[in-house]
């Protein structure tokens, strides 16, 4: 477990602008406190009321929370609804039919607008197309798509017919894709011929072909291909079809499949402390409720807003705050195919100006790299653009350092926009701890206070509450509607990972360390307490990367640790022992390159170690356990000042200290 070094904490408070507070959906701290008090007074009543007010139920629920099989909680279990109906049909009934749902900007800059009416038609047609292939409620569909209207429509179409989707991020390799297809037991893959990002083409369809050729995917009956670029691809007879052919004769009306609130809307794989990714399973009712509520609370969404979340649909942020949340509240949103640095690092600012974005939600990594770019080239500095449409900024995915927060606040928000530092996880489904933009005074580097209804706390290893000021383990004391329901196919791992017996079996273990400020009670996240790294906001398990490395025939042993990185937050540093003599000089460089490419093939380019160091051995205890805490110190380039008396082979430290 990591040591909870007290962080240097910012103390200056930034009050939300008075004009913002005046019009906010939740205005002022008294309102926030009243909502928290209401949730504590009658927890189930609080959630039931919101679920009735914010969602359309085909069959109203009578039960709110079933705790009989804790920690397998069930919310609104006798209620029935359809997620796609809530996101689309409701908007046709309430006057939003002609409103723009999506402003899509392609990598090359072409813009397409899709109204709610058109999106509804496209999703219905897509849903009918999936049905024509025999895909039914409960079937699993893997989506391996670029950022596109079609990608969102694919997710919504699955939701419409009750199929459970599993989106795999385009940066994962054929092997990672294959593992997820097998684990989910999917019967179809929806993909594109190519993905285009930053002018570069990535052959998604041929990666799917490669994944399926690896074997074990015989349950895949269909591969549906969206034509993005027209690149030459192979279509396997009987199995593969163009999306436009599947849709050609389909009606643009499709009755939704009403499902139970607990019906699995999607599975999304994420990294944990073992080598195998976890299929995080989410529900329909509870998940959508929180997606919609947090749009209203954290993002203060209003009818005229132009909302822009820069995440990819391959991650949870792209699920909750692109594919579902904005549509569930009838918002207009920007969807972007490309990358922030193409054709230059002013792309985000240019798009905010062009589309008059009012709410902008991005990751600290992106902010930090754009700070660097703006320092180097004044032409891509946000001050060169008209960003006056903005009224709210958000941050997600990793801790935002106070310097980056200040830059974002000043240069992008013109000191006029609240910055919401939203802490949450794939497992939480939506925001957990975040300022309310029209209420909470902000402190750079702190995600501040839990949202109403979210019972977070900082405890010690035995589950005892810790006083403010003392670092400990972040937990959630009561179940909440959008929480993970299970790990697909592995309920025991779900229980052990998130509701460990040491904490009493009913307290949710987030996997992060946290400390609350002595005066304000504000939370600061101190980082993961398990073997999970956060590289550019991408969650990576050290064990996954180690397994990938040792799968290479020349590798005897490998240990992977995170190293603080100015831009990406953390970077991956691997210590490797080869089956042959320790390489040095050019040979070491050559082998390091081969191993990096190997990891790229095994997991995906996002998992390539930035640095690889070779040793004759790894630092181990006498019982053979690798001492990763020492490796973390070495990776940083620091001297070892800790106790090494349990170390079997102290001489190895000097060798591993040198970066190759
Ligand atoms: C982990 C979850 C949140 C959706 C995208 C990432 C870290 C996330 C923050 C934040 C400090 C943060 C945590 C968390 N994290 N947001 N605002 N401040 N840390 O989802 O891939 O499931 O990763 O990201 O360590 O546990 P994810």
Automatic annotation (TrEMBL):
Acetyl-coenzyme A synthetase N-terminal domain: from which residue to which, for each copy?
A: 32-87
Q: Which Gene3D superfamilies match?
A: 3.30.300.30, N-terminal domain of ligase-like (3.40.50.12780)
* Entry binding sites for ATP: 397-399, 421-426, 512, 528, 539
Q: Where does CoA bind?
A: 197-200, 317, 536
**Example of a GO MF term:** acetate-CoA ligase activity
Q: Give the EC number.
A: 6.2.1.1
PTM summary from the entry reads: Acetylated. Deacetylation by the SIR2-homolog deacetylase activates the enzyme.
HAMAP family found in the cross-reference section: Ac_CoA_synth
Q: What is this protein called?
A: Acetyl-coenzyme A synthetase
User: Which organism is the protein's source?
Assistant: Pandoraea eparura
Could you read off the lineage of the organism from its UniProt record? Bacteria, Pseudomonadati, Pseudomonadota, Betaproteobacteria, Burkholderiales
Protein encoded by which gene: acsA
């Amino acid at each position: 477990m990591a040591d909870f070094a007290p962080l240097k904490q910012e103390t200056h408070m930034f009050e939300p602008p008075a004009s913002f507070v005046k019009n906010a959906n939740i205005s002022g701290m008294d309102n926030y406190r009243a909502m928290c008090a209401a949730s504590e007074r009658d927890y189930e009543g609080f959630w039931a009321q919101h679920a009735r007010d914010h969602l359309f139920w085909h069959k109203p629920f009578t039960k709110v929370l079933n705790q009989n099989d804790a920690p397998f909680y069930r919310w609104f279990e006798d209620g029935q609804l359809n997620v796609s109906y809530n996101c689309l049909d409701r908007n046709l009934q309430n006057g939003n039919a002609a409103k723009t749902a999506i402003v899509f900007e392609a990598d090359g800059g072409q813009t397409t607008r899709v109204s709610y009416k058109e999106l509804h038609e496209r999703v219905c047609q897509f849903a009918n197309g999936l049905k024509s292939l025999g895909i039914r409620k409960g079937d699993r569909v893997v989506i391996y798509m670029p950022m596109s209207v079609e990608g969102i429509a694919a997710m919504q179409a699955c939701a419409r017919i009750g199929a459970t989707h599993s989106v795999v991020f385009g940066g994962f390799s054929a092997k990672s894709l294959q593992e997820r297809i097998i684990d989910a037991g999917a019967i179809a893959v929806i993909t594109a011929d190519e993905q285009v990002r930053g002018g570069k083409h990535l052959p998604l369809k041929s990666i799917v072909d490669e994944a399926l050729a690896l074997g074990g995917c015989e349950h895949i009956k269909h591969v549906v291909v969206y034509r993005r670029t027209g690149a030459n691809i192979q279509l396997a007879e009987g199995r593969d079809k163009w999306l436009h052919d599947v849709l050609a004769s389909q009606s643009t009306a499709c009755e939704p499949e009403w499902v139970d609130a607990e019906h699995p809307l999607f599975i999304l794989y994420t990294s944990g402390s073992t080598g195998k990714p976890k299929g995080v399973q989410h529900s329909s009712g509870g998940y959508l409720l929180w997606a919609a509520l947090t749009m209203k609370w954290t993002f203060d969404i209003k009818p005229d807003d132009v909302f822009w979340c820069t995440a990819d649909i391959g991650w949870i942020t792209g699920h909750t705050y692109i594919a579902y949340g904005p549509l569930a509240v009838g918002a207009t949103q920007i969807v972007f195919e490309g990358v922030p640095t193409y054709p230059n690092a002013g792309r985000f600012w240019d798009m905010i100006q062009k589309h008059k974005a009012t709410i902008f939600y991005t990751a600290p990594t992106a902010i930090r790299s754009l700070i660097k770019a703006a320092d180097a080239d004044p032409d891509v500095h946000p001050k060169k653009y008209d960003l006056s449409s903005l009224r709210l900024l958000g941050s997600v995915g990793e801790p935002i350092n106070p310097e980056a927060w200040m830059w974002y606040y000043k240069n992008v928000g013109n000191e006029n926009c609240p910055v919401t530092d939203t802490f949450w996880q794939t497992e939480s489904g939506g925001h957990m701890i975040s300022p309310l933009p029209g209420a909470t005074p902000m402190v750079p580097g702190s995600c501040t206070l839990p949202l109403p209804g979210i019972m977070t706390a900082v405890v010690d290893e035995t589950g005892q509450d810790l006083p403010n000021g003392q670092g400990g383990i972040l937990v959630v004391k009561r179940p909440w509607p959008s929480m993970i329901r299970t790990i697909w196919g592995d309920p025991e791992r779900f229980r052990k990972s998130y509701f460990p017996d040491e904490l009493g079996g009913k307290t949710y273990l987030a996997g992060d360390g946290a400390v609350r400020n002595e005066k304000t009670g504000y939370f600061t996240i101190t980082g993961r307490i398990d073997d999970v790294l956060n590289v550019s906001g991408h969650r990576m398990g050290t064990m996954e990367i180690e397994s990938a490395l040792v799968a290479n025939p020349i590798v005897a042993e490998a240990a992977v640790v995170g190293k603080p990185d100015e831009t990406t937050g953390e970077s991956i540093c691997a210590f490797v022992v080869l089956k042959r003599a320790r390489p040095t000089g050019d040979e070491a460089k050559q082998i390091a390159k081969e191993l990096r490419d190997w990891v790229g093939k095994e997991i995906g380019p996002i998992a390539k170690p930035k640095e690889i160091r070779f040793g004759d051995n790894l630092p181990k205890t006498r019982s053979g356990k690798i001492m990763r805490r020492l490796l973390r110190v070495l990776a940083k380039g620091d001297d070892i000042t800790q106790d090494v008396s349990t170390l079997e082979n102290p001489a190895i430290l000097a060798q591993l200290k040198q970066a190759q």
